[in-house]
Amino acid sequence: VEVNVFRRRHACDKDAAQLFASEGAKVISVQDHSATLYDASGIDIDALIAWQTENGKIKGFPGAADVSPDAFWLYDYDIVIPAALEGQITAQRAEGLSCRLVLEGANGPTVPQADDILRERGIIVLPDVICNAGGVTVSYFEWVQDFSSFYWSEDEIYQKLDKIILNAFDDVWNKSQQLKISLRTAAYAIACERILTARKERGIYP
Asked: In what side-by-side order are the strands of the sheet with 2-6?
């Protein structure tokens, strides 16, 4: 699997590029605010993050070629992960993408017209409401722990997060298959159903 990652400005402990590389994927292109890097044979992600940690940016990393920012969207790869800014996948970029899967690691990285184009082209988009929900879910875990004055281990946090995200994905996937709609539309449909059910059972106020 070849992956392109449009990443946030700062490194984190386990970012998307690291997670994919650790599972055997080949990360061929990475982009941040300073540069777009490319290596068809795969970028050494650990070395890149060490470089970014020291220099505050990926520009100048000696382990990959520094290419044009627009080239990031044109390479032949399996997965693209826009994980920084909104509105990055425009209609024009959607027409040129060669991937099979878009994982929205940012808030609103795909414009509506591009969403339609990707669906018509058979490219699956895992929407931000699921793909980018890890942070807010763990924030909820932090609130629960603080409120209740008990604490989970890091492993327990990951187990709980995996369960919630995987269950959410299963619900959205099944709804999309049932109604023959996109994953994004399926997520909205489930959200509306749950809100209406809650209002019917509990009323406007809890």
From this structure: 65-67, 36-38, 26-31, 2-6, 79-82, 101-103, 124-126
Closest Cα partner for 114 from 129, 127, 133, 130? 127
**Amino acid (1-letter code) at residue 117:** I
Q: What is the pLDDT of residues 162-174, one digit of tens each?
A: 999 999 999 999 9
- β-bridge partners, 80: 4, 102
Q: In this predicted model, what pLDDT tens digit does every residue of 53-85 receive, in sequence order?
A: 899 899 999 999 999 999 999 989 999 999 888
Q: How far apart are CA 83 and CA 105, in angstroms?
A: 4
Question: Would the CA dihedral through 114, 120, 122, 127 be positive or negative?
Answer: positive
Q: Exposure of 167 by Cβ count < 10 A (0-12 exposed, 13-18 middle, 19+ buried)?
A: exposed
Residue 70, φ and ψ in degrees, nearest 5: -70, -25
β-partners of residue 101 are 79, 124
Quick one: which H or E segment has residue 87?
Answer: none
